[in-house]
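Two proteins were folded this term; both appear here.
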Amino acid sequence: MSGLNQLKKELQKEANPVQAKILQRFFKTGKGEYSEGTIFLGIKTPDVRETAKRYPELDLREIQKLLSTKIFDFKQIALIILTNKFKKVDEKEKTEIFGFYIKNAEKINSWGLVDISAYPIIGSYLLDKPRDILYQLAHSDNLWKKRIAMIATYAFIRNNQFDDTFKIAEILLKDKHNLIHKAVGWMLREAGKRNLELEEQFLKRYYKSMPRTMLRYAIERFPETKRKFYLKK
């Protein structure tokens, strides 16, 4: 049996139907919802990560097959394996993984998938490179590409590089989707943990026009009096 087939069999054996039903609702998989048609096996993320460690040899062709399914757990383990690979390979292979990820961006169709992979792959790769691709993604009509663009900047934030976080946040200020509001607010908050002055410069410029959810996420760690100030708009 191939490694890929063995992996699928192992995950299906670990399936938890009760947990799967809960996740189907939580991740909005119904008709017309943002993860319409996604199937869950109901495996806990720590267990998926442990399983991923046993399949480091999966190649991009096999990872592609996992990403091309509708099963969240298959996609999740594919991205965990890909992230683990990225940390260990040379620059040439990092470039290949980066290109592979961008090519498959629309298949990374859940905030749970974007958030575990965008910054350790896309953000990390772009730390010392031009970042035009993030602006292309941010201007996309695709929800997941936009979230990838925003979350990828977390790698920059962790390296005390803030410009792209604020520039992409500005692009996404008027986005209609709640998942983008949360992503932008989260990254603004993370930037503020390292440079509060820059976060507040951004907020003072935009807080009156920001979506409420975005603002609440951005100011979550502020003292109560300061939160009240920003929420009065």
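Next, the second protein.
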Amino acid sequence: MTASFSLPSGFRAVVIGGAGDIGAAISNLFCDLLATVTATAIDEAAIADSQLRSRAGITLRPLDVTDDSAVEAFAKEHQRVDALINCAGILARDKEFEIATFMKVVDVNLIGTFRTCMAFRPLLARSQGSIVNIASMNATLALPRIPAYCASKGGVVMLTKALALAWAEDGIRVNAVAPGYIETSINEAGRQDQAHYQRIADRTAFKRWGQPDDVAGAVAFLCMPASRYATGTVVAIDGGFLAG
């Protein structure tokens, strides 16, 4: 492995929502690449359920990304951060047509991402670090039952591009990864419909749903020296779903 395709010695990553499915895969890969990782979950119960709880090299912390003061305090606990990964996200099928639920989804997925980016900006400027936001295929391909999720992920894409332009002078690169249909707890209920599950699989080039590990590699690459000229970009990890 050349230096360009590895993480520098002493690399420190913060993975917001890192105790979840895709977040855990990212946290594990960073740890495999010898980074020190701090991963967050919404509360102590989520931490207790996380597969990361016994992994050496990973510290788990509760964090509510909708709480301004909590996010600011969390960022101030760190002395150095080389990468900020924003994975925290929720959806609420059908209920997102209620104003309160719509606002909650946007607050977590979009405004929460902005909160953590702002809070960690000074540290990332100091380290010339990277931000990788987790967007979604639904930023461009809408679904009728999750309007807030679609809107929030579309917002994450444009936030990524805007921050990439705004913070280039600080040496901060800001990119996003847009997963397609990945098998996670957020879509577990929908996957029980075998006809739906197979219809999605057949639409992809690989004839299968993705796994969280399929997303992690792209995130790690966007934090490596090999991607040093990439900023403001969105990498689709959808198995070719949108290519057809």
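The first helix runs from residue 21 to 32. Helices lie at 21-32, 44-49, 68-76, 99-127, 147-167, 194-203, 212-221. These notes refer to the second protein only.
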